[in-house]
Design brief:
The chain has about 290 residues and is α+β, with helices and mostly antiparallel strands. About 15% of the residues lie in helices and about 35% in strands. The protein has helices at about 20-25, 75-85, 140-150, 160-165, 205-210, and strands at about 5, 10-15, 40-45, 55-65, 65-70, 95, 100-105, 120-125, 135-140, 150-155, 215-225, 235, 240-250, 250-260, 265-270, 270-275. A hairpin with a 2-residue loop joins strand 15 and strand 16.
């Protein structure tokens, strides 16, 4: 399809400014903030000290000594408050800009033509090229800005359908806060973790999970043969629980599944579940008995 755009009203923006903004975030999140530059963003997560997911975010250069965190709107105030508590003596200031900015995404062929447009902060999605270009714009102006550059609005749900087909999580819809692990949720292959950056909150468990091969389940894209089950619906094989449904739309969803249970007949609330393995996903080699 030709490039089109969707507004993402469930996403919002937090600003972090001050001389210590990069160093401050570096000690907290899972990716390397020194890689952030104009037009180049990172995807990262804030974790609990025990290594469980709290928030995901894109970290982008906002100009004028500011970095912008694109994150979930509903949970942005709590995240801004938590980050402010961590500033202590750092020369860093946290500001919730949920009411001042909005988020859109341009996707499809030639989406990269949205890079660098005026009146917005733009960056290629660092997870997968197919996910297009994110646009952070003044509140209420994204549609007009993108329309002026020839981009047409996509049908509601088109971007979510793309995301689901690629098996990419969308914040707490797919990653239960204080429960989800990054390596079960694709953060390694989708460029959300830097293994050389040094310490950050929750690093120890994340590293141990990787190097000891402790991942026993993964978030998979699935096709549905039947009605879309509600998020949280258990998935069974031969009467045994092997996973659960997360976000979904139409005949697609994401599902957390045990790695040893992706074969056979899987059902969730009467709907047959057909797991897929996206090209980006790296799974452990099957053991040889």
């Amino acid at each position: 399809m030709s490039a089109a755009f969707c507004l993402l009203p469930h996403r919002a923006v937090i600003a972090v400014s001050g001389d210590d903004r990069i160093e401050f975030l570096q000690g907290l999140i899972s990716n390397d903030t020194t890689r952030v530059a104009p037009g180049r963003a990172i995807w990262a997560a804030l974790l609990t000290p025990q290594g469980r997911f709290l928030n995901d975010m894109f970290v982008a250069d906002g100009g004028a000594g500011t970095v912008l965190l694109e994150t979930e709107r509903e949970r942005a105030p709590a995240l801004a408050k938590k980050l402010s508590m961590y500033t202590l003596r750092s020369k860093a200031k946290v500001e919730d800009r949920s009411n001042a900015m909005e988020v859109a995404v341009v996707f499809g062929a030639d989406a990269d033509k949205a890079l660098g447009i005026e009146k917005g902060i733009t960056f290629a999605d660092p997870r997968l090229p197919a996910l297009g270009v994110r646009v952070l714009a003044p509140a209420g102006e994204a549609a007009a800005i993108l329309g002026a550059h020839g981009f047409l609005p996509a049908a509601p749900g088109d971007y979510d359908a793309l995301r689901l087909s690629l098996g990419v999580p969308d914040g707490s819809r797919d990653l239960p806060p204080e429960k989800a692990l990054l390596l079960e949720s694709g953060f390694d292959e989708l460029n959300g973790v830097d293994w050389k950056k040094g310490c950050y909150m929750g690093q120890e468990l994340t590293a141990r999970t990787k190097y000891r091969g402790l991942v026993k389940k993964r978030l998979f894209p699935v096709r549905l043969d039947g009605p879309l089950p509600a998020p949280g619906t258990l998935i069974e094989r031969d009467g045994q629980e092997v996973g659960e449904i997360r976000s979904g739309l139409g005949d697609r969803a994401l599902a957390m599944l045990r790695l040893d249970a992706t074969g056979g007949t899987l059902t969730a609330g009467g709907t047959r579940i057909l797991p897929e393995t996206p090209a980006w996903m790296r799974l452990p080699e099957p053991s040889r008995s």
